[in-house]
């Protein structure tokens, strides 16, 4: 019983196709692999030669779960390359759109994909059919408000059509917001209840000392722009990203992984944002965190489910703030002339930092593209979590170990579809 | 009948307010770069000082003058309200069938042009004069109040003069307006129209007013951008199903159905079955359909008109030819919408002339 | 016949008809007898719009006798979603029914004349009311001939009834099939091959044709060639029908609405239209 | 009647189409009530393998493994239904078809030696018989619900294959092509999205792929009249349905 391989070939309740393996020799974990077997889709290659205006539509297709994040990182990077600034109501509308995606994605993950781990079900439908119907219905209703924002601003919930370099194709009139506002006011109550529900779960008592990386903005909870900071003192401009982070092909794994330049792993996503920017949360979100006893320097990754719930509540608050302050802009987008240039941007996808870099030709066509999504950055950290969190339960039944492994991976809301375009394929079924 | 009077814009606004008391007043507004018909609250909603520039596949609004009704017809037509894009027919659940309550809409239309009133009358024949009537259409029609407008400017795709439907509106309205310098000449077409007009501040029309209105209408007639020779046209079309021109137009036609959607007389519908997962209720719904689609003529095994040529031929021959057999009128009133709003600018007048053997 | 020119109710709203008898004719073809509230009878050749709620609505001819005023008989072939769902219904089940619609076969106009009824495949169902009528009023008509073509012997519709009718001496019935195994002793070939041997007086004959369009075209041409007048030949046409009452526009065939001007038309009217491709 | 058993399978894709199912907040539990969701890894750990009455396939075939897998699923399914542009025409990843795969790999990967991928991204129908195809990138929720509701009662789903223009006009949008000169693929694009883009003042970019009998040549000619150059026209036809034959042929004419 001292040697075994614990593995799942088709990891469920994550976006995309992944697998993991833990190798135990003499009662010690000697290897952990979090592997992605999503086929490569070559986005960076497709983008070469396409028009810069196509980037938000094309990169959205990298991931159906967080298309807005791709659209946001790409338009910001393009705008830097083109030398234009988008601010005022247009910037606010983008933030509003992003709030919608945060709500939608966080609640999808927390309620439908992650909560079943805490409550011992195979999935949310099984959970709903077994006494948790009200909680699932509440979550669906709440999540719907997030989709309603994305649909309202972006046209549809998946692969929104209204985002363009420079702003939007069409902007709403102030009066158009009324029904959405009503829906969000209702969602705010649901969001509060949702925080309490997630906090009522039992969390494994496990912590690690992560390097927590997020964006940082003086006035806003990190989302659509800012410097890149870490809990260990890093504080850089986004354009310095390539100098501080790198991607590596690691031998044991099938994936490119993100590291700090010194080779150490780091964590991005809701927990780092929450820890690094707690003060910038809305009062309601802070009060909820206090109410449920979520420490402001939380290092327990299992509690990320509650952090997502807090961020969801924040996103509802923030959406309402933006809607109330909205004034229709003079034009739906900032006009510009295409030119050659280099642009970089990072925004906070629901599951963490999403970095884009583009080089443009004179006619505005794309010369090169580089996209670094959050899941690749978190991969080393996922493997380290597996390494350090399951050692003490190796004597328990395999199914229990498996469940804890899966739960540990799901802490990250890993989005494997995102990662595909730079992960090579190697299916190890042996 | 009451003699024509002249009213000013304030009185027109007052008319809108009065009508709005027990009706939805629909009128022209500027939206998304076009003049479309929507609910209006008052004269301020009208596209005053905007005119349109139209050509085959081309429409732009621009500022010119300060007329209320300087624009000609836009992409939407009144059929959207009388014969809406979707209409529930009935619902069934729990073993019984509940007919959709007969429509209670009470509309007032402001700004109905000659070609448009003619189009409403064409649809009246379709939906109310046959052995079976559409009760929803009939109800909306009975409750309708029409404020017509005589055109004093015509567009490049207009040809109502050829179709005897304008620019001066034919009878069938409650009130007809003609925009002249210093106001609107108002004529009464029904008792209800007379009563509504009597309640407004007005002055009797002078000879000069009448002359100005007549001149405006004459100007519009002179500006008519298109012509259609209807002489014997119905037979020419029916006798030429194999004319080579049909293939020429089929090569250009996108069979996108825009012409049929914008046409104020096209009436075809498809019935959709609607059922939901979370209830036992099912309903049946009418939806605008188009003879430009293959599903339109589908019978088990395939479409009767799979070719683009057959579909265009069906449409045009129906509009200008077989409509006469069916409804004793033309199916085209010369509004020009199908020309302007065809994304590739196919022109019914040009095609008809080509089949006739002229031009093209 | 209920002709509701003055109808206040919505002609698009069906009534619930109940199936009193179900009978499988051949695999995939089912005959139903149904009862519908308010039914007052029909003319031979008329059709109903039958529906299953949630599935859809289709045009189906009435295949029973018009002397039978409270039973409505339909013979349906399962070819697609709606017809399939209808054929799956059982006795006691209900379906939606609107009708009767359309112009009937002008049987009265054939009085005193020879009658040819030519049908192909399922086309026998819509002409069956003619045969019932002729048999019930046999003395009013001259020679009566039924020419019927099926694809294969197993697909012969109403076989038992055909046998009964055949035993009546005053009715000539010829059946042919397109393809047959060696044990088939009847005719092989399309329906038109039966015409030369049929006995009728071309100057005094009325013909009723129902079947695939191509079969009707050949049959009508053969009859015309034999000297039957183009106004004495009648066909039942089929087009996509959504409403059955001339409001939806789908069934147009040249100047005609098949649903309300037809489905029965004379050959003089149809001939020029049927010669146009994809009309 | 026993509830039909559903399996949801993913091939190369962004996950968006199957996510549409989870995005049906109002209907999800009703869907789960009407059908037995036996296999749906994105939503549940339970992997109830066996025979499926309905298999939903998302994604295109881009690896040798996927090419095998689809045969297996076909063999175990009564009705095989594809969801979205990837499964129906190959999707955005089909942009690699005709390109030099090795060069693509070099452009993206530092260590290309492990990459095991086919040279093409192909639709499911290139590999097995498909019973029904739901279009869109992504599919529309309305279509998905309609598909499920229709399948449960046995009607043909109402997902008409006519032009997006019809939906555009039903919605009351002003044609962006005629009123702004904006390039729009609506006239050759399969309906289904409700003509979203024109409603947001931009041209359709063809998520739903070619409509029935699309006249792409006539549209391309008009786009050129409006000032589009060959490169723009080629790009317009080569996005999410780049491998759909009608779009691919038109794009090739402008390369
Ligand atoms: C006047 C008339 C009388 C008919 N009488 C009979 C009859 O007695 N028995 C019988 O079995 N069939 C009859 N049919 C044909 C029958 O209507 C079609 O077989 C049926 O519509 C097929 O529908 P479906 O949904 O099963 O097939 P699908 O092939 O799935 O058809 C889809 C839809 O297309 C339309 N459609 C398809 N085929 C036809 C068609 N031939 N005519 C009109 N619309 C069609 C319908 O709206 C149908 O729901 C008649 C048709 C007409 C017009
Ligand atoms: S056919 Fe064209 S011109 Fe005639 S009424 Fe219809 S849209 Fe107007
Ligand atoms: S905007 Fe596009 S989809 Fe709409 S009618 Fe015009 S061409 Fe068609
Ligand atoms: S691109 Fe076309 S198909 Fe896609 S959402 Fe826009 S209008 Fe619809």
Concise account of the structure shown:
The complex is a heterotetramer of chains A (430), B (360), C (279) and D (255). Helices cover 43% and strands 17% of the residues of chain A.
Architecture overview:
The complex is a heterotetramer of chains A (430), B (360), C (279) and D (255). With 430 residues, chain A is of the alpha+beta class. Chain A has one domain: Orthogonal Bundle (Cytochrome-c3 Hydrogenase, chain B), CATH 1.10.645. Chain A contains 13 helices and 14 strands. In chain A, helix 6 packs antiparallel against helix 10 (304-325). In chain A, a hairpin with a 2-residue loop joins strand 12 (341-349) and strand 13 (352-360). Chain B has 360 residues and is an alpha+beta fold. Chain B has helices at residues 9-20, 79-82, 114-128, 135-142, 160-163, 191-198, 207-223, 233-238, 245-252, 258-262, 308-327, 337-340, 348-356; strands spanning 5-7, 24-31, 34-39, 50-55, 58-63, 86-93, 96-99, 107-112, 145-150, 175-180, 183-188, 203-204, 269-275, 282-288, 298-299, 302-303. In chain B, a hairpin with a 2-residue loop joins strand 15 (298-299) and strand 16. The model of chain B has no long low-confidence stretch (mean pLDDT 94). Chain C is α/β, with parallel strands linked by helices and 279 residues long. Chain C has 2 domains: 4-101, Beta Barrel (Elongation Factor Tu (Ef-tu), domain 3); 108-274, Nucleotide-binding domain of ferredoxin-NADP reductase (FNR) module (Rossmann fold, 3-Layer(aba) Sandwich). Chain C contains 5 helices and 15 strands. In chain C, strand 1 and strand 2 form a beta hairpin. Residues 1-7 of chain C have low confidence and may be disordered. Chain D is of the alpha/beta class. Chain D folds into 2 domains: 5-153, 3-Layer(aba) Sandwich (Rossmann fold); 164-253, no CATH class. Chain D has a 5-stranded parallel β-sheet, sandwiched between helices. In chain D, helix 11 (230-237) runs antiparallel to helix 12 (245-253). Chain D is globular and about 55 Å long. At the B-D interface, strand 5, helix 10 and strand 13 of B face helix 2, helix 6, helix 7, helix 8 and helix 10 of D. The complex binds flavin-adenine dinucleotide and iron/sulfur cluster (3 copies). One iron/sulfur cluster (SF4) sits between chains D (164-165, 168, 173, 175-177, 184, 186-187, 195, 198, 204) and B (256, 258, 343).
Order of helices and strands of chain A: EEEHHHHHEEHEEEHEEEHHHEEEHHH
CATH topology of chain A: Cytochrome-c3 Hydrogenase, chain B
Question: CATH homologous superfamily name of chain A?
Answer: Cytochrome-c3 Hydrogenase, chain B
* Global geometry of chain B: globular
So what's the oligomer here?
heterotetramer
Number of helices of chain B: 13
Q: What portion of the residues of chain A fall into strands of 2 or more residues?
A: 15-25%
The low-pLDDT segments of chain A are: 420-430
Count of the domains of chain B: 2
Q: Regarding CATH, which class of chain A?
A: Mainly Alpha
Major β-sheet annotation of chain B: 8 strands, mixed
The hetero compounds bound to this protein are: flavin-adenine dinucleotide, iron/sulfur cluster
Q: What amount of the residues of chain B lies in strands?
A: 15-25%
Order of strands, main sheet of chain B, comes to 3-2-8-9-10-11-1-12
**Could you say which structural class the secondary elements and strand pairing of chain A correspond to?**
alpha+beta
Q: Uncertain spans of chain B, ≥5 residues at pLDDT below 50?
A: none
Average pLDDT taken over every residue of chain B: 94
Distance, first to last CA of chain A: 20 Å
What is the mean pLDDT of chain A? 88
Count of discrete structural domains of chain A = 1
């Amino acid at each position: 019983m001292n040697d075994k391989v614990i593995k799942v070939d088709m990891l469920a309740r994550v976006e995309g196709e992944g697998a993991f393996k833990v190798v135990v020799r003499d009662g010690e974990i000697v290897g952990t692999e979090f592997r992605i077997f999503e086929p490569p889709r070559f986005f960076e290659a497709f983008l070469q030669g396409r028009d810069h205006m196509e980037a938000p539509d094309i990169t959205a297709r990298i991931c159906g779960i967080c298309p807005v994040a791709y659209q946001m990182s790409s338009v910001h990077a393009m705008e830097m390359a083109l030398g234009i600034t988008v601010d005022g109501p247009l910037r606010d509308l983008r933030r509003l759109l992003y709030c919608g995606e945060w709500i939608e994605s966080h609640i999808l993950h927390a309620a439908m994909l992650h909560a079943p781990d805490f409550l011992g079900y195979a999935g949310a439908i099984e959970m709903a059919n077994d006494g948790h119907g009200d909680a699932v219905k509440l979550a669906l209703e709440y999540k719907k408000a997030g989709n309603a924002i994305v649909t309202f601003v972006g046209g549809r919930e998946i692969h929104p059509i209204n985002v363009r370099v420079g702003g939007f194709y069409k902007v709403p009139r102030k009066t158009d917001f009324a029904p959405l506002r009503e829906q969000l006011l209702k969602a705010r109550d649901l969001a509060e209840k949702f925080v309490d529900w997630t906090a009522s779960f039992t969390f494994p008592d496990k912590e690690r000392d992560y390097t927590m990386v997020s964006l940082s903005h003086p006035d806003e909870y990190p989302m659509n722009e800012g410097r890149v900071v870490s809990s260990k003192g890093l504080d850089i401009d986004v354009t310095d990203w390539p100098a501080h982070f790198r991607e590596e092909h690691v031998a044991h794994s099938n994936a490119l992984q993100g590291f700090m330049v010194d080779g150490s792993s780091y964590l991005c996503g809701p927990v780092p944002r929450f820890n690094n920017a707690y003060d910038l949360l809305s009062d309601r979100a802070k009060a909820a965190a206090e109410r449920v006893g979520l420490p402001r320097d939380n290092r327990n990754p299992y509690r990320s489910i509650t952090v997502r719930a807090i961020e969801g509540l924040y996103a509802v608050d923030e959406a309402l703030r933006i809607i109330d302050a909205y004034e229709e802009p003079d034009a739906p987008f900032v006009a510009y002339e295409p030119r050659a240039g280099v642009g970089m941007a990072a925004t906070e996808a629901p599951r963490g930092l999403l970095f884009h870099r583009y080089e443009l030709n004179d006619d505005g066509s794309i010369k090169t593209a580089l996209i670094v999504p959050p899941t690749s950055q978190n991969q080393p950290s996922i493997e380290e979590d597996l390494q350090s969190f399951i050692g003490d339960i190796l004597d328990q039944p395999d199914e229990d170990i498996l469940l804890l492994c899966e739960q540990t991976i799901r802490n990250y809301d890993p989005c494997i579809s995102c990662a595909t375009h730079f992960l090579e394929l190697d299916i190890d079924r042996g | 009948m009451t003699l024509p009077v002249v009213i000013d814009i304030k009185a027109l606004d007052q008319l809108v307010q009065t009508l709005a008391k027990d009706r939805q007043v629909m009128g022209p507004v500027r939206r998304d770069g076009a003049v479309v018909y929507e609910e209006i609250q008052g004269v301020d909603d009208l596209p005053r000082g905007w005119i349109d520039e139209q050509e085959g596949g081309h429409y732009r609004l621009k500022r010119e003058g300060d007329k209320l009704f300087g624009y000609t017809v836009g992409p939407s037509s009144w059929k959207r309200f009388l014969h809406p894009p979707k209409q529930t027919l009935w619902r069934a659940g729990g073993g019984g069938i509940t007919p959709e309550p007969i429509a209670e809409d009470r509309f007032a239309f402001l700004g109905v042009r000659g070609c448009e009133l003619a189009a409403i009358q064409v649809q009246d024949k379709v939906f109310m004069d046959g052995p079976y009537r559409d009760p929803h259409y009939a109800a909306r029609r009975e409750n309708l109040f029409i404020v017509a407008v005589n055109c004093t400017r015509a567009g490049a795709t207009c040809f109502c003069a050829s179709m005897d439907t304008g620019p001066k509106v034919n009878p069938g309205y409650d009130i007809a307006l003609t925009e002249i310098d210093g106001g609107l000449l108002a004529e009464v077409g029904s008792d209800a129209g007379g009563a509504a007009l009597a309640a407004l501040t007005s002055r009797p029309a002078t000879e000069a007013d009448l002359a100005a209105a007549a001149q405006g209408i004459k100007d519009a007639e002179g500006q008519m951008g298109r012509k259609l020779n209807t002489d014997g046209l119905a037979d020419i079309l029916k006798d030429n199903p194999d004319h080579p021109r049909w293939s020429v137009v089929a090569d250009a036609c996108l069979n996108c159905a825009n012409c049929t959607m914008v046409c104020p007389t096209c009436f075809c519908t498809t019935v959709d079955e609607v059922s939901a997962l979370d209830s036992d209720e099912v309903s049946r719904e009418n939806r605008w359909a188009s003879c430009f689609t293959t599903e339109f003529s589908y019978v088990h095994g395939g479409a009767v008109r799979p070719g683009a040529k057959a579909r265009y031929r069906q449409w045009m021959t129906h509009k200008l030819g077989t409509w006469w057999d069916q409804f004793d009128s033309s199916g085209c009133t010369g509004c020009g919408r199908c020309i302007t709003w065809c994304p590739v600018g196919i022109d019914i007048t040009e095609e008809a002339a080509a089949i006739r053997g002229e031009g093209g | 016949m209920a002709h509701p020119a003055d109808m206040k109710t919505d002609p698009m709203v069906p009534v619930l008809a109940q199936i009193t008898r179900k009978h499988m004719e051949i695999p995939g073809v089912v005959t139903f007898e149904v009862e519908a509230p308010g039914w007052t009878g029909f003319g031979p050749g008329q059709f109903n719009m039958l529906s299953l709620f949630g599935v859809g609505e289709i045009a189906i001819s009435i295949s029973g006798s018009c002397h039978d005023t409270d039973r409505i008989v339909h013979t349906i072939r399962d070819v697609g979603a709606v017809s399939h769902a209808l054929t799956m219904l059982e006795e006691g089940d209900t379906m939606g029914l609107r009708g009767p619609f359309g112009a009937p076969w002008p049987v009265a106009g054939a009085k005193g004349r020879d009658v040819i009824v030519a049908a192909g495949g399922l086309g026998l169902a819509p002409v069956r009311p003619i045969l019932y009528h002729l048999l019930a009023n046999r003395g009013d008509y001259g020679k009566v001939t039924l020419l019927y073509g099926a694809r294969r012997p197993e697909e012969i519709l109403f076989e038992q009834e055909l046998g009964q009718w055949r035993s009546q001496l005053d009715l000539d019935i010829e059946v042919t099939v397109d393809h047959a195994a060696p044990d088939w002793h009847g005719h092989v070939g399309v329906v038109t091959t039966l015409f030369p041997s049929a006995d009728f007086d071309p100057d005094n004959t009325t013909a009723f044709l129902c079947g695939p369009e191509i079969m009707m075209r050949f049959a009508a041409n053969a009859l015309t060639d034999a000297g039957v007048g183009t106004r004495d030949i009648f066909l039942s046409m089929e087009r996509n029908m959504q409403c059955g009452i001339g409001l939806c526009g789908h069934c147009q065939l040249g100047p005609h609405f098949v649903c309300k001007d037809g489905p029965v038309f004379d050959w003089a009217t149809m001939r020029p239209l049927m010669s146009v491709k994809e009309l | 009647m026993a509830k039909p058993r559903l399996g949801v399978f993913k091939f190369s894709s962004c996950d968006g189409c199957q996510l549409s199912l989870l995005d049906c907040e109002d209907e999800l539990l009703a869907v789960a009530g009407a059908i037995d969701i036996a296999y749906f890894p994105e939503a549940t750990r339970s992997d109830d393998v066996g025979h499926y009455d309905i298999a939903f396939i998302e994604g295109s075939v881009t690896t040798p493994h996927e090419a095998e897998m689809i045969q297996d699923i076909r063999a175990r399914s009564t009705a095989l239904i594809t969801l979205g542009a990837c499964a129906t025409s190959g999707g955005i990843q089909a942009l690699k078809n005709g390109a030099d795969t090795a060069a693509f790999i070099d452009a993206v990967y530092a260590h290309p030696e492990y990459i095991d991928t086919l040279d093409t991204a192909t639709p499911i129908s290139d590999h097995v018989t498909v019973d029904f195809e739901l279009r869109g990138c992504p599919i529309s929720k309305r279509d998905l619900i309609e598909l499920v509701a229709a399948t449960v009662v046995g009607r043909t789903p109402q997902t008409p294959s006519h032009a997006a223009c019809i939906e555009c006009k039903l919605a009351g949008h002003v044609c962006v092509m005629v009123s702004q000169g904006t390039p729009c693929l609506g006239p050759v694009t399969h309906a289904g999205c409700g003509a979203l883009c024109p409603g947001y003042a931009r041209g359709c970019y063809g998520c739903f792929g070619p409509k029935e009998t699309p006249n792409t040549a006539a549209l391309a000619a008009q786009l050129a009249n409006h000032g589009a150059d060959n490169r723009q026209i080629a790009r317009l036809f080569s996005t999410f349905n780049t491998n759909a034959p009608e779009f691919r042929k038109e794009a090739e004419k402008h390369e």
